[in-house]
Amino acid sequence: MTFTGTxxxxxxxxxxxxxxxxxxxxxLQRNLSYMKGMFRDDAAYEALLAKGDVKMxxxxxxxxxxxxxxxxxxTSIVYPGKVGDEYFMTKGHxxxxxxxxxxxxxxxxxxxxxxxxxxxxxxxxxFLPGQAxxxxxxxxxRSINVSPDEPLKTFFVFRGxxxxxxxxxxxxxxxxxxxxxxxxxxxxxxxxxGNA
Length: 196
Ligand code: NI
Description:
The chain is 8% helix and 36% strand. The chain is mostly beta strands and 196 residues long. It has a single domain (27-189), classed as Sandwich (Jelly Rolls). The strands form four sheets. It has a six-stranded antiparallel sheet, with no helix packed on it. A three-stranded antiparallel sheet has the order 8-7-10, with no helix packed on it. The protein is globular. The structure holds nickel (II) ion.
């Protein structure tokens, strides 16, 4: 089998462990305003946004060719904070090629990967330093930072042509949410699901 569109050379990826940034690559910065409608408590969201459009997460991608022979590689850094009682998180996505899996390796911090399939099955994987979450095919996935003061930094790898489907999440949200209950993370039903 012949693969086309490959890099044909090795790449040294330098992750700054203090920040999670990848040297030599630009960040795709996501602020609170990018997450409109994603949080359960709209009043808390608007109140927080009125104080400032804070940075919610950074996202680095090496931008390699989007072919089945390549891997998409990068880091995600979710900053600590809450909207009401709901933790800061990424928007989350399905893969355009729905069956494609992904691995997220936790570099530092404490959080969870919330995962759910179109059929409504869901799972939660915990992020602790040195611990990785293998996201199964068909599952949307979202990183959630439950630490009060430390960024959640992960390193991800998935098939190069899998792509991102953010639109489904923007329209419907996730069926489950992670909120703080008695000082601890808890998974609850999303009352806005289907109408984010
Ligand atoms: Ni993904």
